[in-house]
Amino acid sequence: MLKGKFMAAPNFKRTLRDKKPFSLAVDLAFLYPSEGHSRVYDEVLAAIDRREGLICLTGDPGTGKTVICRRLLEELSDDYNVVLVNTPPKTPDEMTQTLDDTFAEMNGDTKIPVAIFDEAQHFDDHCLDHVEFLTNLEKNGGKLLQIVLVGQPELAETLSQRRFSQLEQRIGAKLKLGTLKKKEILAYLSHRLTVAGLGEELRFSRGAANYFFKRTQGVPRLINRIANIAVEQALERKKHKIGAAIVKRAEGKVNAARGDWIEERKPAVNAPRLAALLAVLVLLTGAYVYQNPEWRDWLMRVRRAETQAVTGPSRIALTVGTFLKKTEADEMQEKLAIEGFPAMVLSKDLGDGWTLYQVRLTGSYSPAEAESEMDKLRSIGIQTADKIPVGSRSAH
Question: The whole model's pTM is what?
Fold first, then answer.
């Protein structure tokens, strides 16, 4: 029988002064055993131990589903042969290849194979049909393969459709991951500060915790985004207690308008001379167009096309992260470039000496293209990508 609680293992409870206590990156060292997460984790373990075959776990974005996936990978490795698939396969053949590559050397191994598919809401119908096929495979009176589907609420909605009624009937455990309760938020904040080695220097007030709940409804990722800025502000101003006022200011910086980010560029050489030359060129071009009816008609057609483009379907820009230090943004930009993702660094002056730096992929995407790019980013360990609607004119 598997035995385990959703609690930090001893080797995770260590001082991590070099790490941010509220980083958005998944780090099991900061694992907080909330009531909801503990219950869901224990139920997943129990379902796997019963060899139910298929388990479905859903939850809203930012509630900690990926944390549970990573924890399962850590704790099941002794008794099970586990694979965690962060990027959902696009086809049944790709799914089969992924499983074959992982479990090919299991001949004679008594360990039970477990496949955990994160972001499973992106499975298409054919992949879900293949999951149903895989659940039919048995060995020694039990399911040959244990499958854990983890995804956003859309996954549950898809499985409830009539087409997938047989697959839904095969689900041994349907679980939903909720948010932190109001009474848990202060303990959550204190826990992460303590693990990071800041517990004696900083603390959040009860009022701050209440404000977090009011503004985030207990979603851990949203809490972390605001708390990360609040901690930076408190350390900068040598504050030992973080109250609701500091958290409110931090929230304002996090929710700063997205439309006035400025791309960080190197200063242009001989900028005044270049500006003067451009001005002369514009005047000469304007005079020529004015005197030439054909060019004037062409220009009017271009202007009409631009106007139609502005009112057309919006495109999507992808942000990868927002940082308080430009060096960190530059490092992320370099990492993306190495992986083949051209990116730019934009800045936003928030006043009071604060500047945020945002790393954004160049260009714009359709919704389908954006999802594909985010899958690629997740495959290289970047989980913080976010979509921003942009007008088709401003997308270029």
Answer: 0.65
